[in-house]
């Protein structure tokens, strides 16, 4: 049986996860087309901030609210699949670890939904909070860290290994995706998956003005003893995400609407100070009890890079729906499945969303 051709526009974690799921089914022959592709840079060059995926932490730490059952489902499905990958494919860069969350307030005084869903999730006693003045509740639970550069490369290599094609190409209009199909296959209704994230703001035919950047400044430091991933929300927003290779991502900021790609030195100082409060193991045991200024200086010396990335937020939530198009030049009809707008939860919901896209396409 001949495979149905599909073009996926976008090679971030969403596009590549969708492409892998479709290609591995054996029913589709998939081409990924994207302006930025993992590993397309010369050695040592800095990643572009025009895509989000290389700049994430990343960990699994649920961002869905207690009432958002759709996103909860996406995150839970991904949680299960990250577990399978961690256990079977060490080359993917995913590892099991302990997650620790501190909350400055609880919406409607209700515990976060995942406290009851994840096996072995446990409340942290108040005497163990790093700073009782900003925390009213703490939770620890088994979770995953994702070494983002390794995982993106894994997704790309696996896709190519399955026979998928990757083309580095920028589209100015969604109609240009038709040029990526073999003309002989255009008689059936072509299917395009739009995973362009913030690119959807300006991509012709889409121009989604609900898309908005959420700026995140982070530091990557060398800290081989830090193993847990820790997040603090409320009056502060801080996180510590080990990558499992001796480096750790420290954050953060969440500045809605900001396109500022220069790092702010005051934010860097604040990230260092708060991270040391959350995780003393960022420094060797010999630094315990040393004055804060010395500890800050020691951690500053371990900085590998200071980074800025832009989370692709969509007001109203991610867009997952089909749209019918007719090419203005050739009158060729085609179907676009939109899947973008995953803000700060793209990694931890990626496999759930890819399954949804697969179901939608299977029914077309
Ligand atoms: C600081 C920071 C920390 C984060 N931490 C986490 C975390 O811990 N856990 C988590 O789950 N998520 C985290 N995220 C969020 C996560 O990174 C994003 O949700 C995810 O990367 C979005 O993936 P994407 O594939 O939708 O978009 P992108 O990675 O932005 O990919 C978009 C793709 O579309 C392509 N494209 C765009 N326009 C065009 C065009 N016109 N033509 C061709 N190609 C185009 C781009 O080149 C790129 O290949 C974090 C993000 C940041 C910035």
From TrEMBL:
<protein>
    <recommendedName>
        <fullName>FAD dependent oxidoreductase domain-containing protein</fullName>
    </recommendedName>
</protein>
<dbReference type="InterPro" id="IPR023209">
    <property type="entry name" value="DAO"/>
</dbReference>
<dbReference type="GO" id="GO:0003884">
    <property type="term" value="F:D-amino-acid oxidase activity"/>
</dbReference>
<keyword id="KW-0274">FAD</keyword>
<feature type="domain" description="FAD dependent oxidoreductase">
    <location>
        <begin position="6"/>
        <end position="354"/>
    </location>
</feature>
<dbReference type="GO" id="GO:0071949">
    <property type="term" value="F:FAD binding"/>
</dbReference>
<keyword id="KW-0285">Flavoprotein</keyword>
<dbReference type="InterPro" id="IPR006076">
    <property type="entry name" value="FAD-dep_OxRdtase"/>
</dbReference>
<dbReference type="GO" id="GO:0005737">
    <property type="term" value="C:cytoplasm"/>
</dbReference>
<comment type="similarity">
    <text>Belongs to the DAMOX/DASOX family.</text>
</comment>
<feature type="binding site">
    <location>
        <position position="311"/>
    </location>
    <ligand>
        <name>D-dopa</name>
    </ligand>
</feature>
<feature type="binding site">
    <location>
        <position position="196"/>
    </location>
    <ligand>
        <name>FAD</name>
    </ligand>
</feature>
<dbReference type="GO" id="GO:0019478">
    <property type="term" value="P:D-amino acid catabolic process"/>
</dbReference>
<dbReference type="Pfam" id="PF01266">
    <property type="entry name" value="DAO"/>
</dbReference>
<feature type="binding site">
    <location>
        <position position="344"/>
    </location>
    <ligand>
        <name>D-dopa</name>
    </ligand>
</feature>
<keyword id="KW-0560">Oxidoreductase</keyword>
